[in-house]
Design goal:
Elements lengths: L6 H12 L3 H13 L7 H14 L2 H14 L4 H13 L3 H13 L9 H10 L3 H14 L4 H13 L4 H14 L4 H13 L3 H8 L10 H13 L3 H18 L1
Helix pairs in contact: 1-2, 2-3, 3-4, 3-5, 4-5, 5-6, 5-7, 7-8, 8-9, 9-10, 10-11, 11-12, 13-14
Amino acid sequence: MAMNFDSTWVQSVRTLLQQGHFAEAVAHTGRALRSPGNDTNGRLVQLHGLTLYVHGEHEAARDALESALLLSPLTAESLLALADLYIKNSQQKDACVSLNILVEDIDTVPTELLPRIAGLLGKVGEIRKALFVCYRVVDNDPDCDEAIFAAAHYMRKLGYAPNAVICMMRRAVSLAPDNCNYRRSLAAALSINGEIEAAYSLFTSISTDNICCKNCLKLMANVFEQFGDSERLAECQGRLFEIDSGAS
């Protein structure tokens, strides 16, 4: 007889995942699958695949989710996990298939999954669709600085006018003024767009200590040099020397 796993049982597994007890969750779903008749239950196979995915058993998780796909339609959560697993295995085309299913049914996808979908779309080069999903996130939450900043990133990749990209970046910075990455990216965009004074003002608020991008440091150094800020210019040059020394 097939083992009964009702909504309470499923929730108990999800609670284990939320609490970080990944191995225990895998063990629970694995035992359930070994019960006669349960190995063809698509819902259970999906859940097992998700527990394996969260536990970091990527190959087994991919096999389980592909098996589940043959038994019943995958949930948005499972499709997203499968897309991520395909990307990790350099199966970009297969990932695109899973992600495009999610985009086509975007109105039924839980809103909390949208940022991850946008990120994976960006990874497989579906930039326009990634931007579309970011807009959806912002529609649902106009104060989501991460989605706004991601939208600016994709807008830049798609060749949007610099002023439009900068406007989006300013929104992200206004919502999360302490985010150094946002400020640095906005300053770089302003500098490239010829708004040197505004770029300088932002760059002066950023420490070079944790910057590892040589291009960013060179851009900062160029701006500081233009403004005769020898102290900050020296800091940038020192940081560039540290990076070069570490790489050698």
